[in-house]
Amino acid sequence: MSDFFELAHRQRAHRFLEPDHVPEADIERILDAAIRAPSAQNTQPWQFVVVQDPQVRQMIANATREAWVGFAREYSRPEVDTYQWTDTDKWAMEALSDAPVIVVVCGDTQAMDAGLLGSSIFPAAQNILLGALALGYGSLLSTLPTFGPVGELLGLPANLIPMAVIPIGRPARRLGPPKRVPFADKTHRDRFGQSWAG
Amino acid sequence: MSDFFELAHRQRAHRFLEPDHVPEADIERILDAAIRAPSAQNTQPWQFVVVQDPQVRQMIANATREAWVGFAREYSRPEVDTYQWTDTDKWAMEALSDAPVIVVVCGDTQAMDAGLLGSSIFPAAQNILLGALALGYGSLLSTLPTFGPVGELLGLPANLIPMAVIPIGRPARRLGPPKRVPFADKTHRDRFGQSWAG
Fold first, then answer.
1. Residues B44, B162: contact at Cβ < 8 Å?
2. What is the pLDDT of residues B33-81, one digit of tens each?
3. What is the pLDDT of residue B176?
């Protein structure tokens, strides 16, 4: 049993993963949870590319490094004290290629306009992250690789957009709970500006 | 204990809710799970407006009905056989106003461009849906009301965009498991077009 609240409070971005093989039965259990997520008009506009081939994984890692060095690193915010910038830098520069599995979550623009896909794709992505954690794996959600030529590398048709890249594997580091601003500081009562706490 | 996989497989859009009061301790437990969700560079670009005031709830319901009748109904797809169009129509026309709690999830454009917010907002929204279900509530994720004047009604500042509206309450109907295309039909091995199943 993996209690939802306990998982939610333990969820972290695992940037460093062991290269050990992940059994396909576990990948399947995770994806079978992903497709239960909601989507607009139940259009289920997701497609998944599960990358285990070392060459394709390396191509995704290369595209990610190029996107990071090419523009994203410049716009990133090392000064955000709860953002582990140094780890992200190591991840984008090389650690991603260690992940034994990379799930690329794609959205289908034949189901709806690209700008509307987020609400029908990222709940499924969150199920992947929670499902992986429930089975003892680390993962993270990154959109960075989607700014590189991932669609071309994977041979996606024109209607499919890569929207999230989720590496999965056994965690190489133990991580504590996430650092967050308390919910009460982000919550308003009935109208904006009326404090929840009163 | 609420097992994640069991919750994921039971999750449904609950469009019909009992008007009974939801204890604030439950709302708080749900939001405290929401803020553990991942976000780009840990920017946590969410703000929540928790609407319990009957007048404000009715204003949101009215704005939703207007958006539905005004344009969305015309673009909706009653022919999708797994999409419960008739229930959505009843929901948008009147049933939403029965929900004792409506959580409006907002995204902060000071954290990132509006077009990038989805990957940092909808995982938190999914945590709200799963957390509500774990505590015995029904909920659903709708973006429909955000096409109406919800931001103005709630007095949101210019940098906050309403991105999801989530009514929460005790389910008025028992719902079976969701209908989905099997994951294997949506999953590719290493590259698009290579069947997962082989």
1. no
2. 999 999 999 999 999 999 999 999 999 999 999 999 999 999 999 999 8
3. 93
Residue with tokens 């991105």: B163
Measured distance CA(A59)–CA(A152) in Å, rounded: 11
HSE toward the beta carbon, residue A11, CA cutoff 13 A: 32
The per-residue pLDDT for range A6-62, each reduced to its tens digit, is 999 999 999 999 999 999 999 999 999 999 999 999 999 999 999 999 999 999 999
SS3 label, residue A81: coil
Structure token pair of residue A74: 């410049």
The complex scores an ipTM of 0.98
Sequence-ordered list of residues with C-beta below 8 angstroms from that of A94, at least 6 positions apart, any chain: A61, A65
Residues 128-187 of chain A with CB under 8 A from chain B are 129-131, 134, 140-141, 143, 154-157, 160, 163-164, 178-184, 186-187
CA–CA dist B50, B61 (Å, integer):
14
- Match 């990133």 to its residue by tokens: A76
**How far apart are alpha carbons B132 and B93 in whole angstroms?**
24
Cα gap B31→A184, rounded to integer Å: 9
Query: A162 by DSSP, 3-state: which?
Result: strand
Half-sphere exposure of A198 (CA within 13 A, CB side): 1
Can you spell out the DSSP letters for B153-167?
Answer: HTT--TTEEEEEEEE
- Which residue is closest to A162 within chain B, CA to CA? B192
Q: Which residues of B touch A83 (CB under 8 A)?
A: 41-43
pTM over 0.95: yes
Residue B36, chain A, CB below 8 Å: the answer is: yes
User: Could you tell me which residues come within 8 angstroms of residue A74 by beta carbon, excluding any fewer than 6 positions away?
Assistant: none
In whole angstroms, what is the distance from residue A160 CA to residue A164 CA?
A: 12
Inter-residue contact B80 to A42 (CB < 8 Å) = yes
> If you search the block for the tokens 């089975």, which residue do you land on?
A135
pLDDT in tens, A114-128: 999 999 999 999 999
* CA angle B15–A33–B81, rounded 5-degree value: 45
Tens of pLDDT, residues A106-159: 999 999 999 999 999 999 999 999 999 999 999 999 999 999 999 999 999 999
